[in-house]
Design a protein that fits this description.
alpha+beta; Lipocalin
Length: about 190
């Protein structure tokens, strides 16, 4: 007469199955990451900004205020995150990344909208001009949003960014950020 399996038998089988499954995870290869899109020279320039920058910012032609801006790589190095007015109620984030062959940005604005811009060709490798291509939460009729941004690399430790605000389809003013890299402590 065949004997019935004991609870210990089931416990041993379960332990063996767990070991077999666990060993397959240990020896399995990591899933392949999708290949990153090709980077433009403009995006490579933006990646060089990683760190903390200090300087001044305000409407061009008016008295500027002190400002701190940080740049960080995220998403496995495929995105540059710019944070402006760090630690203040006006803090804003802009994300830069490649979309196919295009360098694009999405600006998460204190105006509670998110304009998207695409980098335009430039004869000067130290200038990256961006133009509005769409966005979210932009109220038709008012259309208050950042519409244009131009980043100028003066040298590796000095940049200027000009952001043009549009209202009702027309330029209202340009904000100038004049920034210098904060030396890192070693």
């Amino acid at each position: 007469m065949p004997t019935q399996p004991t609870p210990r038998f089931f416990s041993n089988v379960a332990a063996i199955l767990c070991l077999v499954c666990a060993s397959s995870f240990v020896t399995a290869e990591e899933p392949a990451m999708p290949s990153a899109p090709a980077e433009s020279a403009q995006f490579t320039n933006l990646k060089s900004l990683v760190g903390t920058w200090q300087g001044t910012g305000g409407k061009e032609g008016e008295e500027a205020n002190p400002i701190v801006v940080t740049y960080a790589l995220t998403a496995a190095g495929s995105t540059v995150m710019e944070t402006v007015f760090v630690g203040t109620p006006m803090e804003m984030v802009t994300m830069y990344h490649m979309d196919g062959e295009d360098l694009v940005l999405t600006h998460y604005c204190m105006a509670a909208n998110q304009p998207t811009m695409t980098a335009q060709p430039s004869d000067n490798p130290n200038v990256i001009p961006f133009e509005f291509t769409g966005g979210a939460n932009i109220v038709t009729g008012q259309e208050l949003h950042m519409h244009r941004a131009v980043h100028t690399f003066i040298n590796p430790d000095h940049i200027q960014s000009r952001w043009t605000l549009f209202i009702g389809g027309q330029p209202d003013h340009t904000a100038l950020l004049d920034l210098h890299r904060t030396p890192t402590e070693e």
